[in-house]
Amino acid sequence: MAVISSPRSALRRRRILARIVGASCDLRIGEALWAYVFLLPWLLGLLLFWAGPILASFYFSFTRYDVMSPPAFIGLENYSSRTSWCGPRFGARSPSLPRSCHWV
Fold first, then answer.
1. If we measure between CA atoms, which residue out of 14, 38, 40 comes closest to residue 28?
2. What's the confidence (pLDDT) of residue 9?
3. Helix 26-46 to helix 7-21 angle, to the nearest 10 degrees?
4. What is the SS3 string spanning 12-36?
5. Which terminal Cβ of the chain has fewer Cβ within 10 Å, N or C?
6. Could you report the per-residue pLDDT of 40-86, keeping only the tens digit for each?
7. What is the 3-state secondary structure (H, E, C) of the chain?
């Protein structure tokens, strides 16, 4: 059985769609929808190839992870071990890192 919608419900749906896409008339609704269609691949690429790796590296920075075993959450231990590099005994082996740590 086919559902027949009334003109009022169609008009209501158009107004809601116009409000969502920020359009004022029927032509602008179509243009706005096509704009979102053309922007969608760029947004998906941004999320997949830019934001995804950033979030993954942020997660892995709080874990102990090697490729052979699953990641184990260790909290801020990775960061505390990295800050201990900026000491006087490390400067004898690599003079550039203590200089960098001085400015951090």
1. 14
2. 78
3. 50
4. HHHHHHHHHHCCCCHHHHHHHHHHH
5. N
6. 999 999 989 999 999 999 998 889 888 888 889 998 887 775 555 55
7. CCCCCCHHHHHHHHHHHHHHHCCCCHHHHHHHHHHHHHHHHHHHHHHHHHHHHHHHHHHHCCEECCCCCCCEECCCHHHHHHHCCCCCCCCCCCCHHHHHHHHC
